[in-house]
Amino acid sequence: MAVPRVVELEITGACQLQCTHCFADSGPNGRHGLLTAGDWQRVISDAAGLGVREVQFIGGEPTTHPAWAELVDHALSLGLRAEVYSNLFHVKPEWWGLLAREGVKLATSYYSDRVKEHDAITTRPGSYERTRANIAEAVRRDIPLRVGIVHVLPGQRVTEARRELEALGVTKIRTDRIRRLGRASLPGAAETDTAELCGRCGRGQVAVLPTGEVTPCVMA
Question: Which secondary structure element, helix H or strand E, spans residue 6, and what is its range?
Answer without folding.
Answer: strand 6-10
